[in-house]
């Protein structure tokens, strides 16, 4: 997987061009040929950074998913109590996904299609989210907020139990559902209380 | 919506015929003409019971969904403690859906397609499940197991928090995932404990 955070400036310009093409013409247009044409350069130049159309598209998906992760990182690093941060993390994740759908449903649909083709990028994204939640669970265990025998397994559970609110399939269907944030708060309240009983 | 439990024997034979056609030839074959031919009767005879192809297909979907509800009813009626029954209800629901997928993936896919066309039948089914869970929540509140201000709203939450394990979209994707039942148990444990803190 290409990590867009370590790409050089030329590769980043290519990803910008690919994103602009997707925004204007849909996911089919994110090809090496289209990107080269948009930037007025040779195909070979693009291929030096992205050896195939698949590699280019996977990098586009990875960068799109990474944009969701960036605002979550401060929540993991914050010194606030873990129970509050656990709820805030999942609430923020759901809010970011919801904003993406509401802000530009067609772009969301285009990226969702691309993501369906690049399951490795999606798996890496999910692994990042799980790792963050597991870190918060370990911090809470260290602070005596709860006892969690297997933080990695419990992180999977917590993300599964709230998937109605952040899984792209459901976020798309419920974007107009204005009571969803309140329901997520109530589910998080139950889950955090449930964790707290094993103290 | 047609309630298949109140249909007369002739209508039930027509639904049996429609199900046999779906099983053999896929969802496209559940039409009034096909059912009439299969039973050697006139179209008019079928139309007297099901005024349209849509009505016939909706009744087929309703009966299929009702088959999931039947084994759940004794759990609602049981005198066992509500917390155990709440977990058992959702675990059984997930198990029934999983069995349907594993038992005959093609038939499940056929019915899933039909259900996508008949959202009213699906909505009625979901309302039944929510009503059952709300009943168990009220019984638990009456017994002092928990305080639940709005059992109907909490029933929605509990089914949403476990949808990974009973929503057809996810059940189909995870049918081969043998750790799913253990994860559902762990989620139910957290949720029931969370409910129990408001005692």
TrEMBL record, chains A, B:
Residues 31-50 bind DNA. Transmembrane segments: none annotated. The keyword Transcription applies. The keyword Transcription applies. InterPro entries: HTH-type_TetR-like_transc_reg, HTH_TetR, TetR_C_27. It holds the Pfam family TetR_C_27. Residues 8-68 form the HTH tetR-type domain. Keywords: DNA-binding, Transcription, Transcription regulation. This is TetR family transcriptional regulator. It comes from Falsiroseomonas oleicola.
């Amino acid at each position: 997987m290409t990590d867009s955070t370590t790409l050089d400036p030329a590769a980043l310009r290519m990803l910008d061009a690919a994103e602009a093409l997707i925004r204007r013409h849909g996911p089919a247009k994110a090809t090496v040929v289209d990107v080269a044409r948009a930037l007025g350069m040779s195909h070979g130049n693009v291929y030096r950074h992205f050896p195939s159309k698949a590699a280019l598209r996977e990098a586009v998906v990875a960068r799109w998913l990474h944009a969701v992760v960036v605002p979550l990182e401060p929540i993991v690093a914050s010194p606030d109590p873990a129970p509050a941060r656990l709820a805030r993390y999942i609430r923020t994740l759901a809010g970011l996904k919801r904003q993406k759908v509401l802000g530009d449903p067609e772009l969301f649909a285009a990226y969702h299609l691309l993501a369906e083709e690049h399951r490795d990028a999606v798996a890496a994204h999910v692994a990042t989210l799980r790792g963050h939640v597991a870190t918060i669970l370990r911090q809470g265990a260290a602070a005596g907020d709860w006892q969690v025998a297997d933080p990695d397994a419990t992180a999977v559970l917590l993300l599964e139990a709230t998937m109605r609110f952040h899984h792209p399939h459901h976020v798309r269907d419920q974007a107009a559902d204005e009571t969803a944030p309140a329901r997520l708060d109530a589910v998080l309240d139950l889950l955090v209380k449930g964790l707290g009983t094993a103290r």
